[in-house]
Amino acid sequence: MTTSAISTSALSRSFGAHQALADLTLDVAQGEVFGLLGHNGAGKTTTVNLLTTLLEPTAGDASISGHSVKTDAAGVRACIGYLPENVQFYDNLTLLENLRFFARLSGLRRPDARIRDVLGFLDFTGHDTQRVGTFSKGMRQRVGIAQAVLHSPAVLFLDEPTSGLDPEGVRTLRETIVRLNHEFGMTIFMNTHLLSEVTKTCTSIGILNHGRLVHHDSMTNTLAAFPADESLEDIYFQLDSAAA
Amino acid sequence: MNTVLTSARHEILCTLRARVAVLLLVVFLGMVSLSSLIGWITNTTVTRVYEKILADGLTTAPNPFAAVSALYYSRNSVIYVVLIGALMAIILGVQATLRDRKSATVDLVLSRPVNTVARILGQFLGLGAVIAVVLAASTTISWAAIGVIIGTPLGVDPTLRLMGFAAVSWVLMMIFALLGMLTGLYSRKETTALLVPFVVWSAIAFVLPQVGTAARPVALLNPVPALAASGGTSFDLIGALTGPFAITEQFKRVASIVLRDDSVTGNPVASILLLLAVLIAMIWIVVVTPRRALRSGLNE
Question: What ipTM did this prediction achieve?
Answer without folding.
Answer: 0.90
